Amino acid sequence: MKNLKTLVLIAAITLGFNTMQAQEKFGHINMQELLATMPEAKAMQVELEKLDKTQQADLQSAVTAFQAKVQKYQTEGPTQTEGENTKRAAELKAEEQKLQMASQSAQQSIQNKQRELLEPIAKKANEAVEAVAETEGFKYIFHREVLVVAQGTDILPLVKAKLGITE
Fewer Cβ close by (within 10 Å): the C or N end of the chain? Predict the structure, then answer.
């Protein structure tokens, strides 16, 4: 009799758990694809490319000036004193280090700008995902990129519609 009660209890818990699971809706979304289709992200990309081109042009002009100086010093080297050549070599080494630092600084500045511009875009996307999940009754939304099997509902079209994206 005690075994029968235990068996009935286990069956009731199992049935209750299965019923609870059946009521929960699962969805997934490819956030990278969503972000790529958002007009704000496209505008961000254009702004970053413009910044990159400007910085590359500035860097290239500095490199050209450096190369001209190297060429000049190499040409004049045989006519200069050893002390002067040593001084010039140190000067060129310092300028080369400045160029490397400028290149790293340019890359860092682009990364910082990308982070700054991406934050509100990602926030808007997350808010749209949350709104669609609430409206459609989804309990869980997973990133599509981390799923091995995606048998839930793909909510990307719903979120795009919420954001007014027609692509």
Answer: N
Domains of the chain: 25-163 (3.30.910.20)
SS3 147: coil
Longest dimension (CA), the chain: 110
Percentage of the chain beyond pLDDT 70 is: 84
**pLDDT at position 40:** 94
Q: Is 159 exposed, middle or buried (0-12, 13-18, 19+ CB in 10 A)?
A: buried
Select the more confidently predicted residue: 19 or 36: 36
Provide CB contacts within 8 A for 101, sequence distance 6+: none
**134-154 mean pLDDT:** 82
Tell me the residue type at 15.
L
User: What's the pLDDT at 10?
Assistant: 57
Per residue in 122-155, is it b (16+ CB within 10 Å) or e — as a string? beebeebbeebbeeeebeebeebeeeeeeebbeb
Please report the sign of the dihedral spanned by the C-alpha atoms of residue 139, residue 140, residue 141, residue 144.
negative
